[in-house]
Design brief:
about 190 residues, globular
Length: about 190
């Protein structure tokens, strides 16, 4: 066994363990195919090229509609996967950007919905997997945020991170965590000023 194969197997197992632990912690279940897909997504981003994030996802999304079917599929998959990855693992840092978590979440969901419809024509990945990712996108963002919070980016800002994550996902687990730490999760009614 080569060092590359050993690293590949260990990285796959590492991400599978992280994902399964985060899914248990967030009380999220998925199909085995979706779990496998998410492990591969995490592993893929561990090996991504430097320029992967340089091009705006919205341009990729728009260009997909003017591309031949196989290229459209690839562009949409890149948009959806990147949006899920970024909105899950880097949710808190998005608040300092022009584009928010809501933007990435909506873009990712929409792209997975398009992929679900295209899958029967391309046949690479079953459409029901993409349909599950579209329908349960906020659940999977919570799972990736849990991985980010618990394992990858620990620090002194846990409370703010949990509150921010709760603001976007309304996770009961996050709400209970905040209450245990003396913070009552609250979102004012829209349109009202205090």
């Amino acid at each position: 066994m080569t060092a590359g194969t050993l690293m590949q197997n260990n990285l796959t197992e590492f991400f599978r363990d992280l994902l399964q632990g985060a899914m248990r912690s967030q009380e999220v279940r998925s199909s085995p195919d979706t779990e496998f897909y998410l492990v591969n997504l995490l592993e893929g981003f561990a090996h991504t090229e430097r320029d992967w994030f340089e091009r705006p996802l919205a341009l990729e999304y728009l260009e997909s509609f003017h591309s031949p079917l196989p290229h459209r599929y690839g562009k949409l998959k890149r948009v959806a996967d990147t949006a899920l990855f970024v909105s899950g693992l880097f949710m808190e840092s998005l608040h300092r950007k022009l584009t928010s978590s809501d933007y990435y979440m909506q873009l990712g969901r929409t792209a997975y919905g398009q992929l679900s419809a295209l899958s029967s024509d391309v046949g690479a990945i079953p459409g029901d997997l993409f349909a599950e990712l579209e329908e349960r996108f906020p659940d999977f963002v919570r799972v990736l945020a849990e991985i980010s919070f618990q394992e990858l980016f620990r620090g002194d800002v846990h409370t703010l991170r949990v509150y921010t994550r709760w603001m976007y996902t309304r996770s009961e687990r996050d709400a209970r965590w905040l209450v245990r730490h003396g913070i009552i999760p609250y979102v004012p009614a829209s349109g009202r000023r205090h």
